[in-house]
Design brief:
350 residues, alpha+beta, 13 helices, globular
Amino acid sequence: NFDEIRYEYFRDMSVQFEAFKSGVLDVRTEDDPKLWASGYDIPARRDGRVLTREIETGLPAGMSALAFNTRRPVFQDPRVRRGLLLLFNFEWVNKTLYHGLYKRTESFFERSYLSSAGKPADARERELLAPFPDAVLPEVMEGRYRMPVSDGTGHNRENAREAFRLFSEAGYVIDGGRLVHKDTREPLGFEILAGSSVQQRLIASYVSDLAKLGIAARLRVVDSSQYQSRLKDYDYDMIQTAWPSSLSPGNEQVFRWDSRNADVPGSFNFVGVKNPAVDAMINRLLEAEGDEDFTSAVRALDRVLLSGHYVIPLFHASRQWVANWKQVQGPKTFSLWGYNLDTWWIDGQK
C-alpha cells in the first residue's frame, strides 16, 4: 500500500486544480459542479491516465440553506417565510449556475435514513409529537411535503402566485410596484449578508426574482472578520449557511436549535429558533436508548424544523465526485462512507 501520503494545502483553488492536471497531485475530491461538468475534459482523461468517479455515499448531506433571522420583525410571520421559500427558483438556478448536477435538499438530515422526507410519521414519532399538535404541518406529518418545484424557466409564475397569496394573508399589498404592509406601509425588504464573493451569483439571482414581486432584497458582501463579528451577534437579516450532519446527531443539535441558545452570542442557532417542540425532540434524541427510538426522535425533529420554514433549503451533490491519476486505485464497491483514501492503493504497474 502507500509508503507515504502527503497532503498539500493551496490558498487558491484554481492553482490546486492546475496542480492536479499536471500530476503534482494524485487524487482530488471535487465540489464545484462547473469544474466537474467541463473542467476535467483534459488530454490525460481522454487517453485514460486520469479517471473520474461518482461515488455513492450513505452519509447525510446536511442542510445548506438561506437562513432567516427570525429575531427580525420582517421574518416573524411564518407565512412570509413560506412565501419567500416559494420564490427561490431551484430548477432554474441548478440548470443555469450548476449544470443541473445538484439535487434539492428536502431535509435537515438529507441523503440518509434519518431524513423524514417522503416518509409518513411512524407511531413513535406521533407519540413524541402528540403534546405539540400544531408543531408539524399535516403534509409534513404524512410524508407528502416537498420543496416547491418550478418549470425550470426564469419566470416561476405558479410559485409566485402562491407566494403572493401568502403575503396577502400576512397583510401585504402592492403599492407603486412595491410590496408594503397595508397597516404600517412598511415595505417588505431585507438584507442578505455574504462573507464571500462565491455566494454572489446565487444570491443575486434570488434578489432578482424577489424584485419581480416588489420585494426590496439587497445583497451585501463584507470581509471575513466583519462577517464573523456580525454572525456572532446575529446582526443580519438573512445569510447563506450550512449545518453539516452525521448518522449520529447529538449535542450539537442543542447548539443549533435549542431555545436556550437563541440569544447566546456565538451559537449556531442562526435563525433564532425558540420552539418548545424543537427543544423536546432534541431531548428525546439525546435520551434515546435504542436505534428505533433514536431514528424516530431525529425524524420528528426534522419534521418540526421543516414545518417552521426557518430556512430556504438549497441543494446538495447526490454523490461524491473524485478524480485520480490511474496509478492510484480504489475498490470497486464502496462502503456506506463512500470515498475513503485509506482503502485505496498504488498500482505499480500503472
